[in-house]
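Troubleshooting: if your tokenizer reports a length mismatch, compare your output against this known-good record of 183 residues.
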Amino acid sequence: MIQLTVSVGKQDHIWGSAKAPVTLLEYGDYECPYCGAAYYVIKRIQEELEKDRMRFAFRNFPLAQSHPNALRAAIAAEAAGLQKKFWKMHDELFENQNALETEDFKKYAKKLDLNMTKFLKDSSDEKIQQRIQQDLMGGVRSGVSGTPTFYINGVRYDGLGEYKDLMFALEAEYSKMLGRNYL
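Known-good structure output:
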């Protein structure tokens, strides 16, 4: 059983209630096709599970060697996050994986009605680079070697990333957290 070394907390981008008994964390890469497929699985799960049952957190793990636009995409998401629009940019990036160039990021920022001067300034801020590096290093220390990598309540999920498999694992963890057996 491989455990997460950096717990999900205030430093993370979180969807759902902080009091939710189940936390699903993804280490992801915006240019990774497997992360792109997982994005739609997570969206479906989010639609079906109430925010008080599961919270979802995303950490950057850009595989820059394989995906040349992944780091810049992570920077765009983090810059949008400084304007409280991380999740909107996150969705734009995954829904437009074939368009991850600098001009595309500007187009998405405009679409999301971001302050463009701030977005461009923040996109070159070293603090964003440091945050992404912290995500990467935390992932490496937690045994992440590829994307997507999921953790359910701090334990790496090594099952299939298909909807039914991931949902089953989340429901099982939810039942366990409530003190019931799940079958």
